[in-house]
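ok here's Threonylcarbamoyl-AMP synthase:
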Amino acid sequence: GRFTGSFAFSLLSHSGSLLLTVHFYTVSRAAPLIPSTALGTLLLILSSLLAYAGIRRSLRNASLFLSLCLTLSVFWCSYGVIFILGGQGVLNDTGDLRNALVPGLVTFTLALLIIAVVGFLHREVVLAMIASALSFASAHEIAMHYDTAFGSSAVACNYMIVSLVGGYFALGRFLYFLTKEKIILPGTDPSKKKTHEQIKSTSGSMNHFATTGLILNMLSASVFGCRLLGVTSKLFVGQVPWLWASGVYQIGICILSYRSMDTLMATFFGFTSILKFAGGYSLLYPIWQPEEPSFPMPFLVVFAILFAVLALFLTLKSLVDGLYLLFYVAYCIAVACCPKGFFEGGPQGMDVAIFVASAMMTLIYQCNTKENAMIPTGKGVVKALLSNTSFLKLREGAGLHAPYLGYSKYADAEVLGYACSVLASFAIMITGDPKAPLATVVVPWVVVAGGILKLLGGSVAFARGKTLESSAFIFYGIMWIIWGLTRYSGLYGTARSFHTAVGIIAFMLFNSFIVFCTLFLSITWFFYSLTFLLIAISFLLDAINALPTGYDIAAALIFGLVSFYCFLSALFSSIFEGSCLPMGKPIVQLSGVGGGMSKCLHLPARKASSVKRIADILKNGGTCGIPTDTVYVLVAACNRPDAVEKAHNSKRQAQERPMSLWISSLKQLEPAKHLFTPLLWDFMEAAWPSPISLVIPRGEWVDFLGMKDSAKYVGTPQSVAIRIPDCSVTTHLIDLVGPIVVTSANPTGEADTTHHNQVYAKLGDKVDAVLCDGPSPENIASTVVDCTKIDSGNIGFFRVGIIPKSQVKLIFSLLLFF
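and the structure:
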């Protein structure tokens, strides 16, 4: 929870700072009190817990807390790895520890100072004090590495401040809950902050993770920028922890940005994570080869184009974001123009520019987390210009990222998936030397872009209910990882094996199945999967040593161009309405597959407009699948006899499955109250709303519902089952439509329907629309109580469902007693 997250952060910051206090007070000894390996391991553990505490708290409006948590987490993660490397003797040369630590310390000195300043401006005093003390500790440590006269005591003192503040805050929260709010230390009362956050909370569209992503960009840029400015004397393996930790965290920020429904920034953070892993790989390269590696120019040119396209679309969000991405366009061009890539002055100069730009963006994002933005960013300027055009119409509304089959916690990641296919295909266009496969940097582009991020896109697609797309992305990601490591990292060698060819043939067979399935999806997906088959053929021909000259380049170019079209199409469709770059219709349409998608609406239950639209469909004589307090059901409006008959005929052996009647309030039966016995009426009032269906005697009260001739389909000639569901969505729908008739959303004899995806799959064209609310809250149907003899003081049970028999009898007994 919110208070638990604050307590955890205070305790963790106290623990980590106490460890570093002890370390810096004893670092001048011949043998420090805490060995470097042990200290690094403890910092790694604390960093993972800090990240968890920050992400848990991120569901609430706590942007500054989140930024501090994740920034401190990545700081201690990288810091801990460097301590472990030092403890294991990797950093033995003079100045190695300084060269390894200073780039990260420079970044976190500035980043934490920005968080501290914003914290004081926003009156987050405790967080600001912790951030400022950590910033001063990092600054003193930088000075200590360049001038021993500073000593380590100043660093230890700053960490002691953090430890004391964190300990005080943790103690205050502990006493607050232990004494049930009787003892409240000054500055630790969470109730005041809760009220303040409720008033000042921002809209759900705010991506609170973007600030941390920008700080990570500062971190990677600092490693190479410090070398250009002479702050460090060399680039070497000791700086890899900063780069790869920022890459790992950047992928996490990418995922969390999708969860924040920020597709464009999520894609951007995915792109920058590729550069971070590639930078770390380049610093590791001297372990295997003495000379510096070369970089593939076509890949970097295409990467610059992707950044430029993304920058263009990000201007729709704000002009500042679009301009910021232009630094990465220039960066990729600079790396492409330099054969030695990251090791030359041009790219390193761009790193310095990116560091400064990222720091400014961090300040802007952090200042603008509150409702009233302090710094203008040009937000909405381009949108206002496009609103006057008829050619391009922007997608808007709360359902912007809603999938076809209802609600999802993630935005669509297909844009990133297609972009990664573009990058991986152009990365393999460079024909390397089989005897020296590592001479050209290909592995990080293929493995990270084509593999890891493709798996990420597939996982998000699966979470959104896109089974085929997710299967394809995951399959292609696995293929890129396996073949990328095998062929481009030197594991393959010059020998060719029949076993490798058999494995690739198995992949091709599976991809052929995907190609067949895409016939029912869209034309673009068909060509996307078909052209990947060309890539697989290239791998197969290489495995049997029969690859024609230029075939692999041609195959990669074709797949890359198709992927680029898919990237543009997905990007356009996520921002604009209409079909500027259409994906195309299914090549083959069958009933219930592809062509049936347009016949049945799937609307998210979390939107009031969706419920109203379902109500309109029911009023016009349609039948709909809706969520309830138990399982999904098929419903029709009582005052539409044709719809009631349609719902009845949707079941096999329908006469054996009489439909029930649902209302939202007993007020709907008030006109016929005199037709019910007082005991029955009181029992209905006591039992509802709940998953309890009452079977009551049929009578003239049925005529008040307007079913006319269709009344024969509801209940039996002697009785009718009726209930008020304990589900706000369902009762609101009934308020709009009036009483409804209900039957199970599955063919007779099959299991209950427990997810909105199953409704159309089971009923097909018999249902006109589905109100989607994910998995059912329960997998058990309602309890059905026989009230036909209630006036004699007896009730029976036709079915015992979610409500146990004892609970129903207790309600009835209390009614009789009182």
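+1. Residues 1-201 form one domain.
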